[in-house]
Sequence to fold (335 residues):
Amino acid sequence: MAGDGVKGAAGDTRRAVTVAEALRAGAAKIEAAHSQSPRLDAELLLAEALGLRREDLFAAPERALDRDEAARFEAFVRRRQKQEPVAYILGRRAFRTIELEVDDDVLIPRPETETLVEVCLERLAGLDVAEPLVLDIGTGSGAIALALAAENPAVRVIGTDVHPVPLDVARRNVRALGLEDRMSLLAGDVFDDLPPGLRFDLIVSNPPYVTPEALRRLRVEVRGFEPYVALRAGDGGMEFYRRIVPQAPAWLVPGGWLAVEIAEHKAVEVITEFVAVGRYEQIDVRDDLGGLPRVVVARERAAGVAPSVSRADAAALEAALDDAHTGARPVAPDG
Ligand SMILES: C[S@@+](CC[C@H](N)C(=O)[O-])C[C@H]1O[C@@H](n2cnc3c(N)ncnc32)[C@H](O)[C@@H]1O
Fold:
C-alpha cells in the first residue's frame, strides 16, 4: 500500500510505491470493507490523489507516488474503508453527459435515474412545442433537470426541493454547467409553493420512496451517508406518488406528461394510482438497464374525457403484474 514506501524524504531509503502497487493494495483494503467495486473505487481515488484522469493510470503503472500523493490516497482509502461513497469522497458524480458536484446533503444520482431522463427526453421530442417547460420535483443535486437541459437545448426547467441545502448544491451545478438561462430553482413542498398559473409540458420526479423499514436494511454506504430526507417516504413508500399523481394534471398543459421513478417492486401500486385518478392515458412502465421496472410515465388526458381504463392502461397494468410475479426483486434501491 502507499504507506509501504515513499520517496522524497531526506535520508529516507524506503522505496516509493508505484501506481500499480498502490492500486493493488488500495483495492484489497477497500474490498475488505465490502465495496462491490473495489478496483474501480481504488482507481478513481488514486486518479484523484494524483490529479490525473483514471485512464492515465493505466499508461503509467510504474510511476512512483511522492509523499503527498501517497498520503492523499491513504486518506481517501481510509474514508472508503468506512464505507463512505466514492462520489462523496471525490465531491462529484458523472450523470449521463454531465458531471455534478455532490456532497452528503444530496442524494448521489443513480444510473437507474438515467433511464428516467431517457424517457423524459423521448416524450419531449414527441411534443410540438418550441420551448417545453419542465418541472423537476425534488431536484436534489439538480441531476434530472440539468441532464434534460443539457441534452435538449430548447427545454426550460424549474427544479424544486423542499430542503434549502440541496438547492444550494443544485445552484452551484446550474452555474458550473452554464445553464442559468434555462434552469431556475424554487424552494417548495411538492406543488404547494409553486406560483399559480404555471403549466408544464412535462413533470418529472424521482421522489423519496424507501419505507423506514427498508431503509434500515440498506447498505451502510447508503443509510450511513446519504440524506434520509432524500430516501424516506411514509405510506408504505407511496407518500409522494399519492400527492404527485393526483395533483399533476392541474399543473400540466393538456396532453402534458408525468414521469416518475419508482421502487422496482412498486409498479403495480403506482400504476394503480395513475389509473385511479382517471386523468391519464398512455400509461407505460420502463425498465432500467438492470431489467427492473423503474419508471412510470403517462399523458394527461384532456379534462372532460370520460375516465376509464384504456386498453393501453390495462396492458401496462397487466405487464407490471406479470413482472411483479416473476423473479425475486431486491427490496429497495441502493445504487
Ligand atoms: C430521491 S431524491 C432525488 C434527487 C435527484 N432528483 C436525483 O434524482 O438524483 C428526492 C429529493 O426530494 C426532496 N424532497 C423530499 N421531500 C420533498 C417535498 N416534500 N417536496 C419537494 N422535494 C422533496 C429531497 O430533498 C431530495 O432532494
Notes: The chain has two domains: 2-82, 105-325.
